[in-house]
Amino acid sequence: MPGGLEKTCHQCISKIASNACFVVVLCAFLALPLSMTFIGMKFLEDCPIQPLIPLYLLVGGIVGTLKVSLLLYDSTRMRRLLSKAVVIDDDDDDEYPWRQNAHRYYIHLLLSLFLFLWFILGNYWVFSVYLPDFLPPFQQPQDYCDKTLYLFAVGVLALSHTVLVLLLLCSGCVYLCSRWRLAADED
Predict the structure, then answer these.
(1) How many helices (H) and strands (E) does the chain have?
(2) Rounded CA separation 72/23 (Å)
(3) What residues does each domain of the chain span?
(4) Consecutive sets of 10 residues in the chain, 187 residues long: mean pLDDT of each?
């Protein structure tokens, strides 16, 4: 990545992450993994047809809470640094914090990778038993899944799909705009 583009991306991410609205959105977003954890724990034994659905919610909720908490910590730390008017010199090694704090960067990367793979597994587990019986059938009492648990899992996946599509669209727009801007600068 050219140095100018890297610096521009860093400045853009820094402005977004240090914005108070971003912190509020992260706090609101923390409700989803916490509710996933709660629903997963509450209904852990209530889906014998696919016992991995409550486990998907439980583990995804715990790891998601950890990920959002780390993002909140990083964002508030950046806000604190900016409020102290810390000016980073262009020649300073601290210009790109992810280079200096590589361990934190790799933790975020690993958590994101795990959550993405867990999301794929969750899709398989939830939709492999699409619309199960919500009450235990008399003949086969093991072929059911609690309605609240199942519909919550489907809702979480639908929300995740929506956010993923929006992120891909926004990333594509940013990429196209940056390419267009670079082409305009070269002319």
Answers:
(1) 7, 0
(2) 6
(3) 3-186
(4) 58 63 78 95 94 96 94 78 55 50 83 95 95 84 91 96 92 85 76
What residues contact 16, with CB distance under 8 A and at least 6 apart? 22
Angle, vertex CA 14, rays to CA 75 and CA 89, nearest 5: 120
Other beta carbons less than 10 A from residue 114's beta carbon: 16
Other Cβ atoms less than 10 A from the Cβ of 13: the count is 13
- In sequence order, the 6+-apart residues with CB closer than 8 A to the CB of 30 are 65, 68, 69, 72
Query: What is the Cα–Cα distance from 88 to 39, expressed in whole angstroms?
Result: 45
For residue 163, the SS3 value is helix
Q: How far apart are CA 39 and CA 150, in angstroms?
A: 10
Tokens for 75? 């964002």
Whether the CB-CB separation of 65 and 37 falls below 8 Å is answered with yes
DSSP code for 128: T
Largest CA distance in the chain: 74
CB 50 within 8 A of CB 125: yes
Residue type, 33: P
Torsion of CA 60, 65, 70, 73, to 10 degrees: 170
